[in-house]
Design brief:
Elements (H helix, E strand, L loop, with lengths): L5 E7 L2 E8 L4 E5 L10 H6 L4 E5 L16 H15 L4 E6 L1 H12 L4 E7 L22 H8 L15 H18 L9 H4 L7 E6 L7 H10 L4 E5 L6 H4 L1 H11 L7
Parallel strand pairs: 3-4, 3-5, 5-6, 6-7, 7-8
Antiparallel strand pairs: 1-2, 2-4
Helix pairs in contact: 2-3
């Protein structure tokens, strides 16, 4: 029977941070992608079968309010570090997806004291290629159909149908995109300082990349593996950029193996 996650609000860093919690076992902090998060996300409910999951909503995503002073991914990292302190999380597995992986790395370059292991799914956040060439295709310029084909191996299964969404759901989708543009437009989807800080990460790290990821190329993913000491890189079959959503079970199995637990049945 699926594990039910509850929702509550915790005041941190001058922000009322909303989060989902549930499950039993060792602690796991899940940091979501730019699409937001819901309590019934398959990867959350599956992880909650083996871990005590804490999954905060980043300010400005998923309907969470964005304070006026927050305008960078690094700001989210500081808010989540405050949350970790308030919840007294220790020896936690930290799983971040896409922009959530970027946030996780920003946190880990500040302190790894609370981290047992780090899992990065489709990570963004560094610039490694030539100055005149984007490492990640311009998601703000391409048609939605093109973006869908980069996010998913089978985009037809995930394509948004606005007629099946409520006005509130459509407003949240628009706010997600607005927040992503605010924190990821300039410089484009990276922190110029982050790649120089990644070698300071001293915890076991697993990088997961969807084999059909149209945003994170094999070379770009390998850059994270090269910069984070001892990092491992695995590919998830039949998955695009949002592998944790499209192939949740495969991602969970990889995370379980990495954590030394038996894979899900």
């Amino acid at each position: 029977m699926p594990v039910s996650l509850s929702r509550r609000t915790v005041p941190v860093a001058g922000v009322d941070l909303e989060l989902f919690e549930g499950g039993t076992g060792p602690p796991l902090l899940f940091l979501h992608d730019a699409g937001g998060l819901g309590p019934q996300e398959p990867i959350l409910t599956s992880l909650a079968e083996r871990f005590r999951v804490t999954a905060p909503l980043h300010p400005g995503f998923g309907g969470a309010k964005l304070p006026r002073w927050m305008n960078a991914v690094d700001d989210f990292a500081h808010a989540h570090l405050d949350l970790v302190h308030r919840l007294k999380l220790e020896r936690a597995t930290v799983v971040g997806a896409s922009i959530g992986a970027w946030i996780a790395m920003e946190m880990a370059t500040k302190t790894t004291r609370f981290i047992e292991r780090l899992v990065l799914v489709g990570p963004l956040g560094i610039k490694v290629g030539p100055v005149d060439k984007l490492d990640v295709p311009d998601i703000f310029a391409m048609p939605q159909s093109d973006l869908d084909s980069r996010l998913y191996f089978r985009p037809e299964r995930w394509r948004l149908d606005p007629t099946k969404k409520t006005d509130e759901e459509l407003a949240i989708i628009a706010e997600n995109r607005e927040t992503l543009a605010l924190v990821g437009w300039e410089p484009y989807l990276h922190n110029p300082k982050l790649k120089h800080r990644l070698p300071a990460i001293d915890r076991p790290t697993l990088i997961l990349r969807g084999a059909a990821d149209g945003l994170v190329s094999p070379d770009y993913a390998a850059s994270f593996q090269r910069l984070i000491p001892g990092a491992r890189l695995e590919e998830i079959a039949e998955a695009g950029h949002l592998a944790h959503r499209e192939q949740a079970a495969a991602c969970v199995n990889s995370i379980m193996r990495f954590c030394g637990q038996e894979a899900s049945r």
